Every structure is written in structure tokens, then in C-alpha cells.
């Protein structure tokens, strides 16, 4: 559960008074997510999501995230729409945090994705990449290859508490990825965190994408690698090749990969695995006192990383070369 910041009744009342969304009927902390504090805000105009932005969000990036949701929605991507107050502002301050209200999306995330879900998410990711074209703001990926070493340095001395030998394993991987990370591939706006819990399905159809708070400009195929890791592995740590093939086929039906992207995919998958290993490791070792949050298992991503080390080319992901 992620609620880091509590909201006092009087603060909520004066914040909501600035909006045309009716009277507050209830406010409940949401028992999911790990990054920000999210509340289900029900007013007599219906349900909304109220987000207080926490530690990992730089307030200077908020116009990018808010503008991106507007941009993508205007191009047919089903995603939350920022709600503006009477002054036309989508961003405010509540309980000492930057805060926004966004529209509520119907649907549920899928706990055990099947191959058909993976096919759908592949297609939706490619649509998102195409819809992102023309978005005028940009944001560097702070969690790409040049951000990994500083993050590791903040966790390195305690990494072996999680697993003996982990620090050395990560250090070796970092050296390799820093030397071999691609310098040019097709790039654009990426979601960068399109995990199953950020994708809603309703009546077996994909019904919306949420959580754009890691979105940035980076290689499009890196976003595919993030999804491959998040959607296509089984609980025992093995890759489900059928799901991987479905995800990649769903993507390339909408936006075909370039040969360079296919060649880079195993390396991008290693990088993506390391990125989530590092943020999870840091979070595991630094749970804020009193926060209602369940930190995620860093070693799940070590297992994925180790798998990708064995991969020679994309045929390991079920694609025929
Ligand atoms: N626009 C939305 N519509 C419906 N539910 C939402 C919406 N945004 C967030 N949620 C709910 O809040 C949970 C956490 O949101 P998320 O953005 O993933 O949080 P975090 O940024 O902390 O990871 C989601 O799993 C979902 O249940
Ligand atoms: N997806 C990340 C954690 C970020 O949280 P989310 O709730 O925004 O997906 C992970 O699994 O490490």
C-alpha cells in the first residue's frame, strides 16, 4: 500500500473548493502502488484519483507528466486526464506536497497475464510510442544507464544484506552495460514503467494505461524491454516464450522493429532488469518509517537479469530471425 502523506480534512476541503467537482463524499488511501500517495476521491461528480507526488518525482517534471497525459489522450490513448481547477491549473499543493486530480479509469489490472494480454500490451505500447510523436516537452530518462551507478552507490554498502555477493554482481553488470549501451536507436516518448499494475482491462479488453510518472524520452525499444521483463516471466523466474512472442508480435503489428532494435533487445532487457533491480534494492533498504508500502522484491529482477545474460539474440524471445 502506498500512502506516505496523510491529508487533514480542512486541507482537503480548501483544496477541493478550488475545483468544480462537487462535494467530497469520501477519500480513501489506495492499497497499491509504491511511488506516490494515491487516494480514491469520490465527490458527487463521481470518482477521481488524487495523487500527492513523493520522493522520486522532481516537481519540475510535473508539467511534462501532466502535458503528456493530455497529449496522449488527445491522440486516442486511454489514460487519465488531469482535472483543472477554476484557474485552469492541473497542479496544486496539498499537505505540503505537489498534488493533482486525474480522471478515474474503469478496469482492473491482471494479476496473472496470459499471452493474449501480452499481445494487447505490445500493441498498446506501440500505439503509445506513435501517439507520443509531436509532444513538445521533453524529459531525460534519469533512470537510464548514466543514472544507474549513482543509484547503486547509494545502496552498494548494504546490498549484500539482501543477498551475499549481490554488490559484486551488480558492479560487474554496470561496467558491462556502461561500455556497451547503444548510442543511437529510434527514440521518442516512452512510458518506462508499463507493468501489469499500470494497465487496466475491462471485459477482456485493454481499457486504459496509468502511471506516467517515469515517462521520459529514450529508446522506444527500451520500453519494450521493460514490458518484456514485467509481463513475460513466470513466478519461478523463467521466461514464458509464448508470452514474449505475443508481446513482441503485438508491438510489431503496430510499429515494426528496425533490425538495430532487434539486435539491441537482449542488451536493453539486461539494462531494464538492472534498472528495476536497483530501484527495488534502494527502496528495500530505505522504507520510510510509518509509510504504508510493501517494497518489491529486488531479487526477482536479479533472476531476470541472469536470464538475459544467457540470451544470444531475439530468437530466445520467440521471434524468428
Ligand atoms: N486514473 C486512475 N483510475 C483508476 N485507478 C487508478 C488511477 N490511477 C491510479 N489508480 C489506482 O491507484 C493505484 C496506484 O497508482 P499508481 O499510479 O500505479 O501509483 P504509484 O505512482 O504510486 O506507483 C493503481 O494500481 C490503481 O489501483
Ligand atoms: N514498477 C516498479 C515500481 C513502480 O511502482 P508502480 O506501482 O508505479 O508500478 C517495480 O515493479 O519495481
UniProtKB/TrEMBL annotation:
Q: In which pathway does it act?
A: Amino-acid biosynthesis; L-threonine biosynthesis; L-threonine from L-aspartate: step 4/5
Domain Aminoglycoside phosphotransferase intervals:
27-257
Which enzyme type, at the first EC level? transferase
Keyword Transmembrane appears in the UniProt entry: no
Concerning SUPFAM superfamilies, the annotation shows:
Protein kinase-like (PK-like)
**Keyword tags:** Amino-acid biosynthesis, ATP-binding, Kinase, Nucleotide-binding, Threonine biosynthesis, Transferase
The record ties this protein, via InterPro entries, to: Aminoglycoside_PTrfase, Homoserine_kinase_II, Kinase-like_dom_sf, Pseudomonas-type_ThrB
Report the domain of life of the source organism.
Bacteria
EC number(s) given by UniProt: 2.7.1.39
Q: Name one GO molecular function term.
A: homoserine kinase activity
The catalytic activity, as recorded, is: L-homoserine + ATP = O-phospho-L-homoserine + ADP + H(+)
Q: Which Pfam families match?
A: APH
Q: Which family does it belong to?
A: Belongs to the pseudomonas-type ThrB family.
This chain belongs to the protein called Homoserine kinase
- Its gene? thrB
Amino acid at each position: 500500500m502506498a500512502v506516505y502523506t496523510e491529508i487533514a480534512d480542512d486541507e482537503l476541503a480548501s483544496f477541493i473548493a478550488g475545483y468544480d467537482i462537487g462535494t467530497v463524499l469520501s477519500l480513501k488511501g489506495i492499497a497499491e502502488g509504491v511511488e506516490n500517495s494515491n487516494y480514491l476521491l469520490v465527490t458527487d461528480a463521481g470518482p477521481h484519483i488524487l495523487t500527492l507526488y513523493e520522493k522520486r518525482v522532481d516537481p519540475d517534471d510535473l508539467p511534462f507528466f501532466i502535458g503528456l497525459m493530455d497529449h496522449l489522450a488527445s491522440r486516442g490513448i486511454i489514460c487519465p486526464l488531469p482535472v483543472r481547477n477554476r484557474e485552469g491549473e492541473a497542479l496544486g499543493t496539498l499537505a505540503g506536497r505537489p498534488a493533482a486530480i486525474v480522471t478515474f479509469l474503469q478496469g482492473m489490472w491482471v494479476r496473472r497475464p496470459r499471452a493474449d494480454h501480452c499481445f494487447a500490451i505490445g500493441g498498446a505500447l506501440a500505439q503509445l510510442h506513435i501517439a507520443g510523436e509531436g509532444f513538445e516537452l521533453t524529459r531525460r530518462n534519469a533512470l537510464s544507464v548514466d543514472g544507474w551507478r549513482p543509484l547503486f552507490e547509494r545502496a552498494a554498502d548494504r546490498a549484500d544484506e539482501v543477498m551475499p555477493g549481490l554488490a559484486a554482481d551488480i558492479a560487474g553488470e554496470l561496467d558491462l552495460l556502461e561500455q556497451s549501451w547503444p548510442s543511437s536507436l529510434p527514440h521518442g516518448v516512452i512510458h518506462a514503467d508499463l507493468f501489469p499494475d499500470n494497465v487496466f482491462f475491462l471485459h477482456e479488453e485493454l481499457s486504459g494505461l496509468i502511471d506516467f510518472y517515469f515517462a521520459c524520452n529514450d529508446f522506444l525499444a527500451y520500453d519494450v524491454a521493460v514490458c518484456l521483463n514485467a509481463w513475460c516471466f513466470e513466478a519461478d523466474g523463467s521466461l514464458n516464450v509464448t508470452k514474449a512472442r505475443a508481446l513482441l508480435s503485438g508491438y510489431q503489428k503496430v510499429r515494426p522493429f528496425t533490425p538495430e532494435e532487434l539486435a539491441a533487445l537482449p542488451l536493453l532487457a539486461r539494462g531494464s532488469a538492472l534498472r528495476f533491480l536497483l530501484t527495488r534494492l534502494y527502496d528495500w533498504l530505505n522504507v520510510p518509517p510509518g509509510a504504508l508500502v510493501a517494497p518489491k522484491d529486488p531479487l526477482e529482477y536479479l533472476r531476470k537479469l541472469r536470464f538475459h545474460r544467457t540470451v544470444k539474440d531475439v530468437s530466445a524471445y520467440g521471434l524468428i530471425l
